[in-house]
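Re: weekly structure request thread

Next one in the queue (213 aa):
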Amino acid sequence: MVGRTIGAARRIGKLLLLDTDGPTIGLRFGMTGRLIVDGTSGVDQLEYSSGRDEPAWDRVRFGLDAGDLRMRDPRRLGGVTLDPDESSLGVDVFAITPAALRDTLAGSEAPIKARLMDQARVAGVGNLIADEVLWRAGVDPARPAGSLTPPEVRRLHRHLRATVDDLLARGGSHTGDLFASRQRGGVCPRDGAPLERRTVGGRTTWSCPRHQH
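Done, posted below.
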């Protein structure tokens, strides 16, 4: 990368892309990674990361003409790739249309939560976001994706975009209305029903058996 120039920064799902006049740099931050530019991080603290800030946790450093760019990750859950395969990612969650979401779900027997979290189909939805979206939309996470009716797909699409916008403005996927109740004895913030804890799509899942169908 010596002598290369970073010309643009963009994002697809959970992947940050830095386009240079050579290879494209792909950065995945996982749950604990942060981008630090000239000593300043865009995120002061992450929910699942250490409260400490150690330079020893820098996993990659790019020296710039003035300053530098680092990826700091205490738990090594992220990664750095040159020329990542962008074609392996689905439509970005901010760009997906109601029609594209309908086509993604159509005919699938997979749980709706698993389908939403499949980065090859919808890029950018993680575990907490999926639970929050489905809770807001009133859809059971274990329900077959292809079973949603057209009105349900439209409602899901509306809540998908609104939820991601909302959580981004609040500061992260851990700021959802459901998050604080994701614990033993937790109740639904909407109707007070005891929450159900299951494994759906290989991930721990919390949902309300009363209003999510």
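The CA atoms of residues 138 and 212 lie 4 Å apart. The chain has two domains: 6-86, 90-207.
Next request, please.
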